[in-house]
Design a protein that fits this description.
This protein is of the alpha/beta class and 203 residues long. 39% of the residues lie in helices and 15% in strands. The strands form three sheets. Strands 1-4-5 form a three-stranded parallel beta sheet, covered by helices on one side.
């Protein structure tokens, strides 16, 4: 039996929670380089390597506002013309930085989600295609396996419900959709139905 070492739940600056908690620099590509054994500079300035490189990695950033907070801070035109960015600019102007952070959790909470704007499907899909493309670029046949994935997250009465979605496909198939997130529905049965539709669409 061959045993492989890897990680199926890793967040980068593309995740709103990781970004708001201080990871404002380390990207999806950095995660793959680190997993393959390259030393990275942590936020405290230390050079950090893995003692033993991984065989596979799923970078499973939150689908909800995927890459949005990072792109907002660098004035990425893809997100700056959205209702979400307008809301965040207004909060920033009024000094309410906390509400920008809380929009992530509130948008997937059964008590708040109806009041909060989200990115359009076209914006989500363009961001997602970039995620899938990066995953494909770091795949090394027989050496290092990247699996494109994301985390669907919901909060039912403030209780976390997480599901990591992992695809067997490359950009040609995964890029045909935008990820189904907790902002679409906080019922996991709707996620299962979306996955069945994805399977039917792509084969």
């Amino acid at each position: 039996m061959q045993v492989y070492r890897g990680d199926t739940h890793l967040h980068t600056r593309n995740s709103p929670d990781a970004f708001s908690l201080g990871n404002m620099n380390l990207s999806q590509a950095d995660a793959y380089r680190f997993a393959r054994g390259q030393a990275l500079r942590a936020h405290n300035g230390m050079q950090v390597p893995l003692r033993r490189p991984l065989d596979f990695l799923v970078v499973s950033d939150h689908a909800e506002y995927l890459s949005g907070h990072f792109r907002y801070t660098i004035n990425d035109t893809l997100v700056m013309n959205t209702d979400v960015a307008a809301r965040w600019r207004e909060a920033q102007t009024s000094g309410d930085q906390l509400s920008i952070v809380l929009d992530f959790s509130d948008s997937i909470d059964s008590d708040h989600k109806v009041d909060i704007p989200v990115f359009s499907k076209s914006v989500q899909q363009e961001i997602w295609r970039d995620v899938a493309k990066t995953s494909d670029e770091y795949y090394e046949t027989g050496k290092f396996t990247t699996l494109t994935g994301y985390e669907w997250t919901a909060m039912r009465d403030s209780n976390n419900l997480h599901r990591v979605v992992v695809f067997a496909d490359d950009l040609a198939k995964t890029g045909q959709v935008a990820p189904f997130s907790g902002q679409d529905s906080i019922d996991p049965r709707d996620l299962w139905r979306w996955l069945a539709a994805y399977e039917a669409k792509t084969g």
